[in-house]
């Protein structure tokens, strides 16, 4: 059964069309990276899949609906004095949206939360105030929070942003491990493809209302990207990294270049 | 009269019951108010409770009902007008100033006993009578029941709004409902500690509790305990010397806060 399915999907705000006639099937266990410059509708796609934004036309379906989605946001600086531990954050994963105090299933929740925390290797700091943890530690807990609900689909909204390279690798490998072990479909919105390139099955590249879906080889080449950006774009492969050089594409290149230079 | 003679007096007992109920409500709401950074909103709401109370005084109806109406209107106004986080501060400032001005006008027009006027601002717990007490208990139970019902989604929305939205939590609706709960609790507190000192019950105990623990459940329990100690302790301490209740409630509350800051600092250094 398909995990995510979009048929003839169109999203527009007034005259501005973000994308149109988008057909997309993401299979269980597939890793799909969503790329594109700012304002190309990556976040809106995420909101459509979460059911927060209706399509202008076409249909969307997510196997299991909103409750089957594990959502991982980008790391953001948390208030240092916040009264919250990692285990409280993870504990919101399974049923944080449910009314009531949540007393009844607290024992079962605790077992699941402990298991999820252990699976991302965060046991050591799960009881510390979350504001005092590093960005990498916080993102591991975010992964645990998404996993504890036993998702069929994981939506990742720039989860590696502002992490260093070692933590980028840890967090992306945790996501990869989950989809291999549990056949969870992964939709991964990102500015930089390189940190997840070895994991990616297909790429959805959005630019100014146009898009292309395919394997990284099919999409990340000079002719396809030049066509998408409607301006000459050069794609260069250096070792196992993909570098995109070109007028319209340069805004998203800062990340590639810094991560490329650091590795 | 000795301390124990004073405890036998009807109005003292009413005051103690009132304080106990308020401590419970304020202590339970406090951690959410602090997490959601609503201290100023509470202050703004309490000024509007003062306005409502002053209007009620002028119209000759129960001050408690006026305060309740004023702060609920304030809560809804704040919820609707400050759709964006960045607006909130200035919206509260504008409403607060206007409300306070209106309150002063109502008091100026009021020809009754002047003690009532001052009481709204700085508190007059001994003025609580049995009708007020009934209103207080019923409203408090209502606040606690609603809080228990929305507890988990509200907690989700307060500490992790991005993911809460993604998981389908009605974050905006909850923030208006919560503002109304805060409004009701504020209106009740105004009658005890007065509009100017509501923060001593609604913020200080929670802020103190959150200094010493990172566990949300423990923080809530401590916040309730601290609010009770401040409210009841303040009244008991005020009896014999005959000092204003609100002064002692705020003093006890602040001492607890200082101690917790110290304990928190030691904990962090040890960790």
TrEMBL record, chain A:
GO molecular function: ATP binding; ATP hydrolysis activity
InterPro entries given in the database record: AAA+_ATPase (IPR003593), ABC_transporter-like_ATP-bd (IPR003439), ABC_transporter-like_CS (IPR017871), Metal_Ion_Import_ABC (IPR050153), P-loop_NTPase (IPR027417)
Source species of the chain: Lentzea xinjiangensis
Record keywords: ATP-binding, Nucleotide-binding, Transport
One Pfam family per UniProt: ABC_tran
Protein's UniProt name: Zinc/manganese transport system ATP-binding protein
Chain ranges of the ABC transporter domain: 4-233
Signal peptide: none
Family listed: Belongs to the ABC transporter superfamily.
TrEMBL record, chain B:
Keyword field: Membrane, Transmembrane, Transmembrane helix, Transport
InterPro entries linked to this entry: ABC_BtuC-like, ABC_TroCD
Pfam hit, one: ABC-3
Source taxon at top rank: Bacteria
Positions of transmembrane segments: 12-34, 55-79, 91-112, 133-154, 174-207, 219-239, 245-266
GO cellular component, one term: ATP-binding cassette (ABC) transporter complex
Cell compartments where the protein resides: Cell membrane; Membrane
Biological process annotations from GO: transmembrane transport
Transport as UniProt keyword: yes
Lipid bilayer topology: Multi-pass membrane protein
Protein family: Belongs to the ABC-3 integral membrane protein family.
The protein's name: Zinc/manganese transport system permease protein
Native species: Lentzea xinjiangensis
